[in-house]
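thread: overnight batch results

M.L. [08:02]
morning all. the overnight job finished for the chain we discussed friday. pasting input first so we're all looking at the same thing
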Amino acid sequence: MESVYLCLGGNIGDTQQYLEQAIDLIDSRIGSVTAKSAIYKSEPWGLDCDQWFLNQVVAVETELEPHAVLERCLQIESELGRTRSGNGYEPRSIDIDIIFYGSQIINQPDLKVPHPLMHLRNFVLRPLCDIAPDFVHPTLNKALSQLAAECDDNGECESMVL
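M.L. [08:03]
and the structure it wrote out:
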């Protein structure tokens, strides 16, 4: 079994419902969801749009290999209405990114783990710190809480009260 951290987000439609559905599908198709962060509302990062994002991080225990996890994440996105135009960052119903796959380092054209931009994004770091503040980034050799304290992302990112 391997511990995997996934970041979920979206800004089209009933995003909170998409997050819940994605987590249910992750639990049934990828592995047991062992922890969930709070849901965070954040400004769009890397794109110019009016719709803010909801983001959440989950920890999953899985027996699947990294590429199988990626495949199933893409299938879940597609089932929940995600379409990709190939034009970079864009509004979406749901996005599921593999942030960490244990402490493995994967650098392949279709899969880069740890996620190469995660340490620059509050909307990833803040929810990660909810569930794994002491996890050490395998290439930066810093705890997630330290990366969050050092992050220069000035975009708004607030925990939602549900």
